[in-house]
Write a structure and sequence with these properties.
Largest sheet: 8 strands, parallel, barrel
Radius of gyration: 19 Å
Number of helices: 10
CATH class: Alpha Beta
CATH architecture: Alpha-Beta Barrel
Oligomer: single chain
Number of domains: 1
Order of helices and strands: EEEHEHEEEHEHEHEHEEEHHEHH
Structural class: alpha/beta
Strand content: 15-25%
């Protein structure tokens, strides 16, 4: 199979280029249910075969399992050909009272604890530990992971430490990974971010991050990596089911109804809801990549196929006319 990379986009002014689709590695950290080592390596290898060259992980994902599996699967490929991002803010420490299963959504033994730490020493220790698990001497991008869930000011603390590492050439780009839009505009305004990884707040269903995140990023010459384009399930099928999930819980009826309105317009243009969800995120010039969780080789093929589907421009105009997306999001306002 052809191993040429997919289309790439620049990541702000960092000099990095990311493939428009990224491999989100939370699933190979056994998010919600277990995958075997072979399934995980097959998924990463298929992603590489299909042209994906940006891979995102974190210590949080499976208490380090995602990083270990990703590092092993990528070890056979030339290191200069792909980009890895990982995250800091949660140190992994021995659990004095181990549990049979992790209590934070991953199907792994609870033999480690996540400890919040966005301090300078914590950031450096976290990155060192990640490099060991990944089996590499560097990663290109490091995000402060969910600092808003810890305390006010945590993002700035982490970014100060990460800026030192960037200045030393240890990493190429620094940012924040979050599902909150509250602090990002200020961080972009103050020139602290090369990139933000925004989860679930800029999708075909939910355009809220447009004014608060994407436009400030573009003004700052920074980049956005969009995550959660399917809103954790609601937009992942051609017709949203009545028990579809949204933001990790049961989707409320009004959002299911809105997603079905979107699906009807998509079908009229020969496009499915998940195909449109990926294409929509890539419309905005601030977006450098869309990271999608992929557990298996089959899921890789499905998502790359959706990405490669040609979505007609007329779809966006119709969605604007139906007041289902903002005109500016479609480049029409």
């Amino acid at each position: 199979m052809n191993q040429l990379p997919l289309t790439t986009r620049s990541l702000g002014s960092t000099g990095l280029r990311l493939t428009e689709i990224a491999f989100g590695a939370a699933s190979i950290g056994n998010l919600y249910r277990a995958a075997t080592d072979d399934e995980a390596s097959d998924a990463v290898e298929r992603a590489y075969e299909r042209g994906i060259r940006y891979f995102d992980t974190a210590p949080h994902y499976g208490l380090g399992l995602s990083e270990r599996r990703l590092g092993r699967a990528l070890a056979g490929y030339p290191r200069h050909e792909y980009v890895i991002s990982t995250k800091v803010g949660r140190l992994l420490t021995p659990n004095p009272q181990p549990t049979p299963r992790d209590t934070d959504g991953f199907d792994v033994p609870g033999d480690l604890l996540r400890v919040w730490d966005f301090s300078r020493d914590g950031v450096r220790r976290s990155l060192d530990d990640s490099l060991l698990r990944l089996g590499t001497d560097h990663v290109e991008i490091v995000y402060a992971h969910d600092p808003d869930q810890f305390r006010a000011g945590a993002a700035r603390d982490a970014l100060e430490a990460l800026a030192e590492l960037r200045a030393q050439g240890v990493v190429r780009a620094i940012g924040v990974g979050t599902n909150s839009v509250d602090e990002l505009s200020d961080l972009f305004r103050d020139g602290l971010l090369d990139v933000a990884m925004l989860a679930g707040r800029y999708t075909l269903l939910e355009n809220g991050g447009l004014r608060t995140v994407l436009e400030p990023a573009l003004a700052a010459g920074a980049g956005i990596v969009v995550v959660g384009v399917y809103n954790t399930g609601l937009l992942s099928t051609a017709w949203p089911a009545s028990d579809a999930r949204y933001d990790y819980g049961q989707a409320p009826p009004d959002l299911i109804a809105r997603a079905r309105q979107l699906a009807v317009v998509c079908e009229r243009h020969g496009t499915t809801l998940p195909e449109a969800a990926i294409a929509f995120a890539l419309l905005h010039p601030a977006v450098s990549s869309v990271a999608i969780g992929m557990r298996s080789a089959e899921q890789v093929d499905s998502n790359v196929g959706r990405y490669e589907h040609a979505v007609p421009n007329e779809l966006w105009a119709d969605l604007v006319d139906a007041q289902l997306i903002e005109p500016a999001a479609a480049g029409l306002g």
